[in-house]
């Protein structure tokens, strides 16, 4: 039987539904599309029924209207993270120098490349080699470099003090709450993409501390965070000397924080990166 026959499709829907897939019809359609034959389809459905995330089976996830390549273990872009694109676009002027940290698939950078006005520099960074290779695939056609390393460490030192936007969907789940994540996330995504330390803010704090010197005066750090962590993160950002604002989107169930480097704070002025600096 052809994998796209109605009978086969109905059988897939029934198996997915029995396994608890809420969007069984949609998933069945996508798996049927992805399979090149009945055996492959049966294999994909078996894996899905066993709990593997749909995105790993398809090899892609949709983010901001584009198909993003997702490789095994790499954090699957979430719909809620679209808020970071809107929030970043709202605070970032034309010709910006933009770095995405903890980039995972690089989905955010792809969306920012389309949304921002003529960014003069785009780059992405991740610690996890699997994420770096996945992001390189997603960003190859945009010629965006993907650096391997910890946060700002692998970036050219000449960029220090000159970035207009640093954006990150960093890990922010408190270590003790990792076990509460959905099984798809807990069992299949790299813990390094999720684990934010004891209060969930360990990585965000390190990003914020370093951002103070990597951002240009007036530049912004834009991050995602859990709704219940907002007050604690605001306190961290404020203590560091950044000017924090919260953006909440109920429809997306998403919370973002923007943190501006004040113009008055002295940063190290790099010599190697001539060009426009936003001074607002
Ligand atoms: N579970 C969170 C989410 O799905 C994890 C995000 C994160 O740590 N960056 O959005």
TrEMBL record:
GO terms for molecular function: methyltransferase activity. Residues 261-280 are annotated as: Disordered. Keywords: Methyltransferase, S-adenosyl-L-methionine, Transferase. Residues 98-175 form the Methyltransferase domain. Pfam families: Methyltransf_25. GO terms for biological process: methylation. This is Methylase. It comes from Micromonospora qiuiae.
């Amino acid at each position: 039987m052809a994998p796209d026959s109605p009978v086969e499709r109905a059988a897939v829907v029934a198996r997915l539904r029995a396994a608890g897939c809420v969007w069984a019809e949609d998933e069945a359609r996508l798996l049927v599309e992805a399979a090149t034959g009945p055996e492959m389809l049966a294999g994909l459905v078996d894996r899905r029924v066993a709990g593997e995330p749909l995105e790993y089976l398809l090899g892609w996830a949709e983010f901001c209207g584009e198909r993003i390549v997702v490789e095994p273990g790499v954090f699957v872009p979430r719909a809620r993270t679209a808020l970071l694109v809107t929030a970043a676009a709202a605070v970032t002027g034309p010709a910006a120098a933009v770095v995405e940290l903890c980039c995972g698939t690089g989905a955010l950078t792809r969306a920012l490349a389309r949304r921002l006005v003529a960014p003069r520099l785009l780059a992405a960074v991740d610690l996890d080699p699997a994420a770096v290779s996945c992001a390189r695939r997603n960003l190859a056609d945009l010629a965006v470099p993907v650096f391997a390393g910890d946060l700002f460490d692998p970036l050219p030192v000449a960029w220090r003090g000159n970035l207009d936007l640093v954006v990150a969907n960093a890990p922010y789940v408190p270590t003790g709450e990792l076990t509460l994540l959905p099984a798809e996330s807990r069992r299949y995504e790299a813990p390094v993409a999720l684990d934010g330390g004891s209060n969930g803010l360990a990585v965000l704090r390190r990003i914020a501390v370093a951002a103070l010197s990597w951002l240009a005066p007036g530049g912004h750090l834009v991050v995602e965070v859990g709704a219940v962590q907002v007050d604690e993160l605001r306190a961290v950002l404020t203590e560091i000397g950044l000017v924090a604002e919260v953006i909440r989107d109920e429809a997306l169930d998403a919370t973002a924080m923007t943190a501006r480097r004040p113009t008055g704070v002295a940063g190290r002025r790099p010599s190697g990166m001539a060009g426009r600096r936003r001074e607002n």
